Each structure stands twice: as C-alpha cells, then as structure tokens.
Fold this sequence. Notes:
The chain has 171 residues and is α+β, with helices and mostly antiparallel strands.
Amino acid sequence: MTALAKTEPAKVLAAVERVARPDSSIVLTSSPAEAAARYRELQAFVQEAMNSGTDYAVIPGAGDTPALLQPGAQKLCELYGFAWRFEDDHSIQDWDKGLFVFRKRCVLMLRRSNVYVGEGVGSCNSKEDRYAWRWVSEKQLAPGLDKTKLKTRSGKYGTSFRVPNEDVFRS
Length: 171
C-alpha cells in the first residue's frame, strides 16, 4: 500500500491541489473541505444503509477486502442519481457442445442529463467450476467409477464427490 493510500482524503485532495498543472488538465471539482465532507457522508451512508452480505461482502479467494455487490451498487446509484442500462456484449449458445458464454455491459449515466459516467463488463460461461461440475453422494456415483481420483468434501450429510456436470442445461 502506498503512503498516499494511507492518507486521509482531505490531505490527499490538498496535496493534489498543490500539484503543478501546466496544462490545467486536472482540476478539482470542489474544495478539499467539500470533498472530505462528501467522503464522510458516503461513509455514514455505508454504515447506516448498507448491509454486509447483501450490499457488500468478502468474496472467497479474492482477498480480504469487501466487494460491492449489485444491491449495494443499486443503492449507490439511487444516492448519486445514476441510471444504468445493460447491453449484450457477446454470447455463445452452442447447444450441441453444451457451451454457453454470456457477457453483459452495464453503462452508467447521470439520470437527469443522460451524461455518460462509465461502464463495466460481467461474464459467465458453462465451463466455470460452478456450472461444469456438480457434487453428488456416494450412492449417486456411476458404477465402477474410481472415487479415489475425485475431489471430495465433507458436510453435514457425509462425503460428497465432484463429478463432471453432464447436464449444464439445468445448472
């Protein structure tokens, strides 16, 4: 983490304000005091109106920092007056091979003026672990299958085995 990332927002903005801008390309839209007040308002909103596990959560395998989830993003869009639209960016639907790919683009605009703010892309496909595999009990294993070569997990109903999902159409 850089020293700048550990600094209070008001101090960061004050430092940015002092940076020489010969071409004036970077200009503050508000004073450091106003920016710090907005930051405090945002923190208060997160504490008051957003819920861990619903609006934001730590995603397993992605580090310890909470990630913003869709319900939280929608609350922030309401707070800041954003509107969004989803567009199809790319898709593959190969029913014979059981390959499905969906990629969507979310475009964010200011609700009042329809001015473009930014965009993000999300995707999923049938080869991801959550669709390509399924967990079954020992009774559901195919006869003669060598279970020593399968991944296992133990749960409240006993041991489960990870097997290829032959029916991605119903995942």
